[in-house]
Write a structure and sequence with these properties.
There is one protein chain. This protein is of the alpha/beta class and 189 residues long. Helix content is 28%, strand content 22%. The chain contains six helices and eight strands. Strands 1-2-8-7-6-4 form a six-stranded mixed β-sheet. It is globular.
């Protein structure tokens, strides 16, 4: 947004208001937040206008946020109608072959350095389990538990003229917190 007043009146109600943006990020927000017309507007924003949509895995996202059988849920690269068991313990993130090939997914250009970074990060405890990846969608990253059971973590696909992504991790903030703690420890040394 341009400033703190831009969306003061709430989420856009018209194509003219919404289509000026390039992307929408939804995090920890349930479907009931949106009016039916606004959900259709988001659908059109992606499919007709060619906008981007990222849904992040907060507690009120995806299936838990009742996005199944909504226009927003239809745009996502994962099928929300199929339930799957979530991990019982912490999981670690790893990149898939497709994720390694995309520079926007990696933070390091060297594979060894990226693997070291990923292995040094804290485990995730909150996953919005994706049972089914839609045809044509690509899994860029996945999480795995100690028993090597895997779940999609970052899934992308093209929808109409636009693109959507599902980041199924609900506690991505853990990595930022850990990074900040390390910096504080370094300062105190």
């Amino acid at each position: 947004t341009k400033d703190e007043n831009e969306l003061r009146g709430g989420f856009p109600d018209t194509p003219e208001e919404l289509f000026q943006y390039d992307a929408i990020i939804l995090d920890d927000i349930e479907a009931d937040f949106f009016l039916a017309d606004q959900m259709k507007l988001i659908y059109d924003f992606v499919s007709r206008r060619g906008g981007g949509l990222l849904m992040m895995g907060g507690q009120e996202s995806f299936r838990q946020g009742d996005f199944d059988r909504t226009p927003i849920g239809e745009t996502l690269p994962i099928d929300l109608s199929r339930e799957i068991e979530s991990p019982a313990s912490g999981v670690r993130l790893s990149l898939t072959r497709d994720g390694w090939l995309q520079p926007w997914v990696r933070l390091r250009s060297d594979e060894t350095a990226e693997e070291e970074r990923l292995s040094s990060m804290p485990e995730f405890l909150t996953i919005n389990s994706a049972a089914f990846v839609r045809p044509g969608a690509v899994v860029m990253a996945e999480v795995q538990d100690a028993d090597d059971k895997r779940w999609p973590a970052l899934v992308v696909h093209r929808f109409g003229k636009g693109r959507t992504a599902a980041l199924c991790i609900g506690d991505l903030w853990r990595w930022r917190l850990s990074e900040g703690l390390r910096k504080l420890q370094d300062i105190n040394l």
